[in-house]
User: Fold these one by one.
Assistant:
Number 1:
Amino acid sequence: MTRVGATQEFVTSALWFLNELNKRVESHDATAVNSTNNSEAFDDEWDRLVAKSEVDKQRGIDELQRRWGNEFATRFRVVSTYFQNLPERDRDHFENALLPGDVAALNSSDVVEQLYFQAIGGHSLPQGSALQTEIVQIENLIKTNRKAYNRDEALQMRYRELLRLRDG
């Protein structure tokens, strides 16, 4: 997780989630043996999670719109493109993960923001003179191959992040 720039908070949450999921699976297995109404209980729980997911999704979107402002649409496209290009195993992980409070991982503004950070290569943002060197390289691409730059929204967002780091 360090290699991809995951924060300690993200790793802790992921490990907590896995532990809770394991407890639920074990509890569910024990309940299944002793319950004849297990199907109804499962259906009720599923319906609750689906309804909660819709509310959480809107909350996540609202929070990202607040954080990202006028860059929301572009950043969200960058995340979506990045997510679609992840290996299937990784996509499945995020699509099926529940965070504390039964929040679907992809409905969490923090998880989506971490995916955005990964999409722009945030874990490899340069410092010092390397920062200016990368800015110059991107500006050279803008001058020599504007179409390639315009097609790469992740690169555009990385460029903006580099400028923000340089200019404060």
Number 2:
Amino acid sequence: MINSRNEIIELLKEYTVTQHECVYQFWMPEAEEWNVKRQVAYANGIVLGKFRENDATTIEVLKEGVTDKGLYDEIRVYLERQIKMIKNLEQPDVSRQEILKSYKKQQDELFSYSIDDWIRKNCGWIREDVIGKPYSEVRVLLYLYYSFDNYTYQRNTPFSSDLNELQVEYESILDKKSQFYKYGIIPIDKERELLPIDPPRIYDRLINKTFSQRTSL
């Protein structure tokens, strides 16, 4: 039974790799293109894309089950973040204001309903994908969906960086006198390209990996 995000962190990292591949096909001329069928499968995000492709690891994780608290925590974090993001807009348009109302309503219901009642009321959008699946697996799929969204946000925020990952990758590549070791800056050069996406990312051809743009360690 899954209790927290740490228990599925390796799967979330795998999802991030696929997310990068999805980005590459539009921004990197040398990237392998996805066929139309795969693009359609991933139209609603990485987690549902993996599920629709019957990704072996995802299917196995669905069988583990998830606790009410684990599911509640990820949904709560997601809703709080979405509400805060819209509230921080200087002049939210009418559609954003309606979305804000919807998120606030979902948040109120999350606090007052059982987690299963909340799912039945607010997650009809996943119904077609999970026809024939046990409800216990539907819960885990929703958990993966909200967890990956929260995880991606944390990876992309300029106030959070996976320094261990960067140090492991670059300790044998970059010179100790480089800007990375002096200032925590990854140099943009013939081996490393800045991808013009939001948030900006750096693609390193030498190691075939993408990292969020960071300004300092």
Number 3:
Amino acid sequence: MEFLTKIANWFESTHLQEQVKDVDLTGLFSNPWFIVPFACLILYLLYKQSWKDIIIISIFIGVWWISGTPYMKSLIVNGEVQIAKILPVIFGGAVTIGFVIYLLFGRSD
């Protein structure tokens, strides 16, 4: 348990959640220091026809986008989880994780 406590304390000290929450998507995708390497990565993956990696990157970007929607912000009201709203998120997350596991371990290129 002490190991998990140290990891949790380190995670809180990095303020990673605030950093991810405060990302300016418009600024990020218009910044050439991000968009040029990202476009090169996507073009390289298209050239190699690595569809599995492109799909996983797309899922990551989709989850990141969905996590900032007003629906996600309304999951917790007055410190209480709204069960009717969280169940579709849990189901969607389980399906997404299952699909990624299938891509990584269930198929061969």
